Amino acid sequence: MSLRFVIEIDWERLDSGPPEERATFGAIGLRAGDVWLSEAHDRFVNSVRQKVHLSGYLLAHWLAWNWWRLRWEPRRRSLAWKMAHRLPTIGGGYVWPNVDFDGDGERVLLKATPTRACASEPLRYVTEAGVVVSAPESEYGIEQFIDCILGKLRSEDVRQTHLESTWAHVVNERKDAEFARYRRIEAAMGYDPGEAAESAVQSLVSETKVLGEDGVAELAAGSVTGVPAPGSKELREIADRSGYDVDLGSIPREPIGNQAGQDVGKPSWLGAHHAARDFRNRCGLGGGVLTNQRLAELAGVSSAVLPGDATSAPFSFALDGGSETARLVLQSPIVTSRRFALARLIGDRILAKVQEPLVPIMRSYTYRQKRQRAFAAELLCPFEHASQLFDSDFSVDSQEQVAAEYQVSPMLVRTQLVNNGFLPRETLDDF
Question: Does one domain contain both 28 and 155?
Answer without folding.
Answer: yes
